[in-house]
Design brief:
Elements lengths: L1 E8 L6 H11 L3 E9 L10 E5 L4 H12 L4 E4 L4 E4 L3 H6 L6 E10 L5 E7 L2 E8 L4 E7 L12 E4 L7 E4 H6 L13 H11 L3 E13 L10 H12 L3 H6 L10 E5 L6 E13 L5 E14 L11 H8 L4 E10 L5 E3 L3
Parallel strand pairs: 1-2, 1-4, 2-3, 6-12, 8-13
Antiparallel strand pairs: 4-11, 5-12, 6-7, 6-11, 8-9, 10-12, 14-15, 15-16, 16-17
């Protein structure tokens, strides 16, 4: 089994090669490192594969392009300014990451000299509802709480969400949930996206508490203009499963709390739901099987400025065929002609 370590990078000249070297020094299995230079160029450790994008296409495109060239059965997403412990962390994550799991490492803060900062141990993440001044709800990832005593645990614990750094997923599951959604803004809410999509597709999120990723914060930041748009679009698409996910974490702080703290201009949003029915009948026209598929497309005005004057009906007519699959349920006809759910 191989792990493909994916590093999207934009202006990371200071730390990128140090991060790559640390990966090769601390992994114990078969790995490949794939770096996506997103709209810039720099010398890269020759042990890494390099994907070059002529312009900054954002983290979602970068991840998908890296996966296109990846050969590993497991994918590990990391930032370009991190270090890792203990030795063999890759095998430790692989051995607990099942077919529908996302396994998250503990994130610890480091200074620019790569020294761990005491009291910054972030292992658990919640998905909360946030709202702007007009009540438009978004889905936001927040750290549950830091482990201030910095105790090292040796367990795998259920987790609700994740941020964008330090998580592993099997390649097949990445493909099953559609990879990174390039219809969302280029940057922001990538952790929220993969966490809620995992839950929505019958998967789960968990943390391996004895795998640590040191992360340098404040390396320059990124364009945050699309974060609110992405969070609100994710809520529109996946709010249908949120209550079930939140119920799994009754001790997490404020997962059901709507906080009115999302700034920014109100956004016109049109949600288009579509239901398709596909029937299978015998030669006499008797119904044998029915599959019902639910699709949703979320139209956000600032992503379609040329259509800002369109009516909801015009938008629905154009985008209903482009919806994302939310659920697919099959039914069989029993002896009485009634439809009953098909069992796997």
């Amino acid at each position: 089994m191989m792990t493909s370590v994916i590093i999207p990078a934009h202006n990371e000249q200071t730390y990128l090669n140090r991060t790559i070297a640390n990966i090769f020094d601390t992994t114990d299995g078969h790995i490949e490192v794939i770096v996506v230079l997103n709209g810039y160029d720099q010398p890269v450790d020759p042990r890494a594969k390099v994907v070059r994008l002529d312009e900054n296409m954002g983290e979602r495109v970068a991840m998908n392009r890296a996966v296109e060239v990846a050969t590993g059965e497991f994918l590990f997403r990391i930032d370009a300014h991190c270090d890792f412990s203990p030795f063999g962390w890759d095998k430790m994550l692989m051995e607990v990451t099942g077919e529908k799991d996302i396994t998250v490492a503990v994130l610890t803060a480091t200074d620019k000299e790569w020294k761990r900062l005491p009291g910054h141990w972030y292992g658990f993440c919640r998905l909360i509802q946030t709202a702007d001044e007009d009540g438009r709800v978004g889905l936001e990832a927040k750290w549950q709480k830091p482990n201030r005593d910095h105790t090292i645990y040796s367990t795998v614990e259920p987790n609700m969400g994740l941020t964008g750094c330090g998580w592993m997923i099997q390649r097949d599951f990445y493909d099953e949930i559609g990879g990174a959604d390039e219809s969302l803004p280029k940057m922001g809410a990538i952790g929220e996206e993969f966490a809620i999509k995992a839950w929505a597709n019958g998967g789960r999120v968990q943390t391996r508490t004895d795998v640590l990723v040191g992360h340098i914060f404040g390396t320059g930041g990124y364009d945050t203009s699309g974060v609110k748009v992405a969070q609100q679009a994710l809520w529109q698409r996946y709010s249908w499963c949120y209550d079930d996910v939140a119920a799994k974490f009754p001790d997490y702080e404020g997962v059901k709390l709507v906080r009115a703290d999302q700034p920014g201009k109100p956004l016109r949003t049109v949600t288009i739901d579509r239901t398709d029915t596909k029937d299978t009948s015998d030669a006499d026209g008797k119904l044998l099987r029915r599959r019902i598929e639910r699709y949703r497309y979320v139209w956000v005005e600032n992503e379609h400025t040329e259509e800002a004057g369109w009516t909801d009906d015009q938008i629905e007519q154009k985008y209903a065929p482009l919806g994302t699959l939310l659920s697919s349920t099959a039914y069989l006809t029993d002896e009485d002609g009634k439809l009953v759910p098909e069992t796997p």
